[in-house]
Specification:
The complex is a heterodimer of chains A (504) and B (102).
Chain A (H helix, E strand, L loop, with lengths): L13 H9 L5 H19 L2 E4 L1 H20 L13 E5 L26 H8 L3 E6 L33 H9 L4 E6 L5 H7 L2 E4 L19 E6 L2 H11 L18 H4 L7 E5 L9 H16 L3 E5 L7 H16 L20 H12 L2 H14 L4 H24 L3 E5 L15 H5 L6 H6 L3 E9 L2 E9 L4 H14 L15
Helix pairs in contact in A: 2-3, 5-6, 7-16, 9-16, 10-12, 10-13
Chain B lengths: L4 H10 L6 H18 L34 H4 L6 E2 L2 E2 L14
Antiparallel strand pairs in B: 1-2
The chains are: A alpha/beta (504), B mainly alpha (102).
């Protein structure tokens, strides 16, 4: 945007910074230094990071500047990669070689990976600058980032409110200018819901679109890795770098990767956008409803055709999700036994190996992780597996068929991302079931495997509201088109919170 | 439904999860509530539906069995909470009648 000339570097979008870098108007060291300065200013009130790697970030910036200078010298400025020299933060469940990766759990408090996750390696190879690691709910199990063992993350729009979760650190960092972009993970809404709460863009790609190699597994048939960015073009740029087949992830899809940025400015003229009526029932805040309805109306004004569709079984998505997710989590978490890595208990005299593992896990995991391991163990145990897990898998197929039927009548589906805006820390329900209702609109995309994006569409009570757009398998391109149209028509206009006494 | 303390403790044992009394009581209560909620699914379940365990149409993926660069022994042991030389150290598994703690 033109009025951004006077903005601080840390508040500019990835694509704006890229253009300035390619034209030699700014160096990556200047950008990275401003992001680090911003971290110094606001981190005490936001708490988005669990690890900041200043030296690594600055040396990465210098390497990027050298590469940019070389390209410019030989007249190849157009060949400078889209994320070269751009400071990014990774959720702390994404392995970074030599940089602590804890999943914000006592279990992995001292874990330093000996290898990079696929997305880390792709970003490094593309020249991105890794600033550090973002706070998250322990092992990505939560919707507020409060189950982290380290500290809470505060919503940059209101420090009394949660940032959402589990990728709350990623969304808060991007909203507060502490990173230009972020990489999160989404198993049931963990990228989209915090993006909605913090007023940024978050994408859950199609299952298999982005390799999960090196990202700590939560629920393997649902887990995805996706970007958190300031705008839709940045989202497309990050997806270009992150997407692609990887033989080290056997669920990675071989489908060709288009240039997602080509979709961004296509507009919505003639696109059919479905409104699933079941998503607009009771339980949604009136402010959220108003913002979402206004955004849908604006899309219609921009030339989209709005059609009513139905996903009759959606009320069951949450139940299916928590059965599948906890069953898979209890299996995945079995590897965390404190033998080859992880927490080893003190005072283990007289323990046998089984006692040692039980003590390691009892001390290493927090309450929410324990609860989910126990629920997963229950639904997979003899006598329960068909009544619970089998039933969930059969219902999951019915839900996927529902989604496919709806998407056969339109190009994508629009709904709120979350039923509320960011809530206050003291409003968090004690009851886990009430907390799980936060995921009511987001889990469906994970169960069906389809891509879904959250884009800011307006405000309710001064807090950002996210619009979720769900698309067909591997059709992230349409999501970019529609999300960009929302950006252009919603009036949100890349608004930024006032935090740390510095406004854009 | 409700879960007895014994049932909950048995699950914790299956999960290799040491839980104190407070945790056992709280989890027993929460699980009962969550499981009741899950019972709603009984209403849509149909025996003729094929379970869906994976959303892509990919089949098993094979690759050539060839050696590739991998972690060195030292790297593989780098995060071991306890080691002895080139081994991960755990309590004795086979009782030889000699001392116990490794």
């Amino acid at each position: 945007m033109s009025d951004n000339i006077n903005a601080r570097l840390c508040h500019m979008t990835l694509h704006e910074l890229h253009d300035m870098l390619a034209q030699g108007q700014v160096s990556s060291r200047e950008i990275t230094s401003d992001v680090l300065a911003r971290i110094d200013e606001v981190e005490a009130s936001v708490g988005a990071y669990v690890t900041v790697d200043r030296e690594g970030a600055l040396s990465g910036a210098d390497a990027a500047d050298a590469a940019i200078a070389r390209a410019r010298r030989v007249g190849d400025a157009a060949e400078i990669g889209a994320v070269v020299g751009i400071p990014v933060v990774l959720k702390d469940n994404v392995c970074t070689r030599g940089m602590r990766t804890t999943c914000c759990s006592k279990m992995l408090e001292d874990f330093v990976p000996t290898y990079d996750a696929a997305v880390t390696a792709r970003l490094r190879a593309a020249g991105a600058v890794i600033v550090g690691k973002a706070n998250m709910d322990e092992f990505a199990m939560g919707s507020t980032t409060q189950t982290s063992i380290f500290h809470v993350t505060r919503n940059p729009w209101d420090p009394e409110r949660v940032p959402g979760g589990s990728s709350g650190g990623c969304a808060a960092a991007v909203a507060a200018g502490e990173a230009v972009a972020a990489v999160g993970s989404d198993t049931g809404g963990s990228v989209r819901q915090p993006a909605s709460f913090c007023g940024v863009v978050g994408l859950k790609p199609t299952y298999g679109r982005v390799s999960r190699y090196g990202v700590a597994a939560f629920a393997s048939s649902l887990d995805t890795v996706g970007p958190v960015t300031q705008d839709v073009r940045d989202c497309a740029i990050m997806l270009n770098v992150m997407a692609g087949h990887d033989e080290r992830d056997s669920t990675s899809a071989p489908n060709a990767v288009p240039d997602y940025t080509e979709y961004v400015e296509r507009g919505v003229e003639g696109l059919k956008i479905g409104i699933p009526k079941e998503f607009f029932g009771p339980g949604m805040d009136e402010g959220v409803r108003t913002a979402v309805e206004r955004a849908v109306h604006a899309l219609e004004g921009a030339g989209a055709k709005i059609v009513d569709v139905s996903i009759p079984l959606v009320e069951h998505a949450l139940g299916v999700y928590y059965l599948v997710a906890t069953a898979e989590a209890s299996s995945n978490m079995a590897r965390l036994d404190g033998i080859r890595y992880g927490h080893r208990p003190e005072g283990r005299s007289g323990m046998d190996v089984a006692d040692l593992m039980s003590a390691s896990r009892g001390q290493g995991f927090g309450m929410e992780v324990k609860r989910r391991i126990m629920l997963g163990t229950f639904v997979l145990s003899a006598g329960n597996i068909d009544a619970f897990y089998g039933r969930a898998l059969r219902s999951r197929r019915l839900l996927k068929e529902d989604v496919e039927r709806a998407l056969a009548q339109c190009d994508c589906l629009a709904s709120p991302t979350a039923p509320t805006v960011a809530f206050r820390f003291d409003e968090e329900p004690d009851d886990p079931l009430a907390m799980y209702l936060q995921d009511i609109y987001t889990t469906l995309a994970n169960l069906a495997g389809v891509p879904a994006i959250s884009v800011p569409c307006g405000f309710a009570d001064g807090l950002p509201v996210g619009l979720q757009i769900m698309g067909r398998m591997f059709d992230e391109g349409t999501l970019m088109q529609v999300a960009r149209a929302v950006e252009l028509t919603s009036g949100f206009d890349r608004a930024r919170p006032e935090v740390g006494g510095c406004v854009k | 439904m409700s879960l007895s303390r014994e049932e909950t403790a048995r699950l914790a044992d299956l999960a290799r999860l040491s839980l104190n009394d407070d945790e056992l009581a709280r989890i027993a209560h929460d699980l009962a509530e969550i499981i009741d909620y899950m019972e709603k699914l009984a209403g849509i379940d149909r025996a003729d539906v094929e379970p869906l365990s994976h959303v892509l149409n990919t089949v098993n993926v094979y690759r050539d069995d060839r050696a590739e660069p991998s972690l060195s022994q030292e790297e593989a042991l780098a995060n071991a909470p306890d080691r002895q030389g080139e081994f991960f150290r755990v309590p004795r598994i086979i009782d030889t009648g000699e001392g116990s703690e490794a």
